[in-house]
Fold this protein.
Amino acid sequence: MLFGKLERMASIDAAAVTPEPAIIHPYWVRITHWLNALAVVVMIGSGWEIYNASPLFPFTFPKSITLGGWLAGALLWHFAAMWLLAINGLIYLTLGFVTGRFRRKLWPIRPSEVIADTRAALTFRLSHDDLSIYNAVQRLLYAGVIVAGVVIVLSGLAMWKPVQLQELAALFGGYEASRYVHFFAMAAIVGFLVIHVILAIVVPRSLRAMIAGR
Amino acid sequence: MKRIRRFIPGVDRQLLIKDAAKLMPKPSRRAFLRGGASLGALTFLTGCDIVDGVSAEKVLRKISHFNDGAQAWLFNPNKFAPVYPESAITKPFPFNAYYQEDEAPEVDPATFQLEVGGLIDNKEPWSLKRLYALQQESQVTRLICVEGWSAIGKWTGVRLSEFLRRLGADTRARYVWFQCAEGYSNTIDMATALHPQTQLSFKFADEILPRKYGFPMKCRMPTKLGFKNPKHVIGMHVTNKDLGGYWEDQGYNWFSGL
């Protein structure tokens, strides 16, 4: 009995000396994050090739960064990866709300804090000491990219099914307007990705956390 | 079935090459998947060479086939494509094909006969005069191209469902297959063939269908992408066999519903 108690005390002491860092990202966040990363890369690469077939603006995406080889190939990729994006995204959103993670991590977003943290970030004075707490800029960007994700899926559905889902298409202003909404949502996500990837490289601990959880 | 086989055209390489200039660089047709940076990253992540295009293409086509089923399930036979006022008509209406405008097939109206076959009772071919005598209606709908652009036009003709009824077609059959003057073809599902807005169009913008828009007739279906709307139709078969189509066989999604 006594022995057991001592052992337990010893182990508590050991834990106190080298505390195991708390889990920042649970399993479901890490799995859906990387599946989403794969889906997004395929969707953007093939989406650019599809865009090139009938550009909305006076530019096209260089062939070397598009996926699919030609329009039909790109469409095959796009309409295959859409399942992964949508199903994985739905699981992520559901768990994000149900577990309270969104509320804990992304809320509240106060404009004054966003402005203050943006200033601090631009002068390299924004701390990343505690990866488990998001600063106001992170909250805004992560919540924003979730909204962009929802918009890109809904506008994509509106473009894919402008007859069967014509009420949804009408919500975006019709078929042609849905194309623009879809494009700008893509631009927002690509903009986010540029910052996101750069910061993951600048703060490698954050990348480790998204792989190992802590 | 032999009769049908005879109709299936070989892909015209010359025409294909012409189109390639615009959409489909020939070398990349086979190398379906050779992507570039984004695909390169993917290959890197998986550590294997998925530029093994043939097997990846197989998987992608399987998913595309699954998507055919999903779209057929989503297809509501009572849902109408939006219709527009005549003031919304796109002018000029774009010409789009895998050949140049001056290469559009020429069909002689005097000798033309629409061949009908397959699971139907009356296989007598139809002259233009007889076709024009059918009761016609007009629609102002949006044509949406697989490339992404869209345009609103006005088509006039007979409902395909009404025409199939006159042929004594077995509408429990699965498909209707269209054959076109220049070798184009495609197959559609019966549910779409029977949709009230699916039309054998003889007129565009109140005038006899011009050569560039598909004289002598086009099958207009506002519930499907443009390439599923065959122009220069010269033959039609009701069948239980999917006879494919010009673009579908090259990788475009078969159902391509809107």
About this structure: Chain B has one domain: 2-250. Helices of chain B lie at 2-7, 13-20, 26-30, 37-46, 53-74, 128-132, 160-167, 190-193. Residues 2-250 of chain B form a domain with the Sulfite Oxidase; Chain A, domain 2 fold (CATH 3.90.420.10).
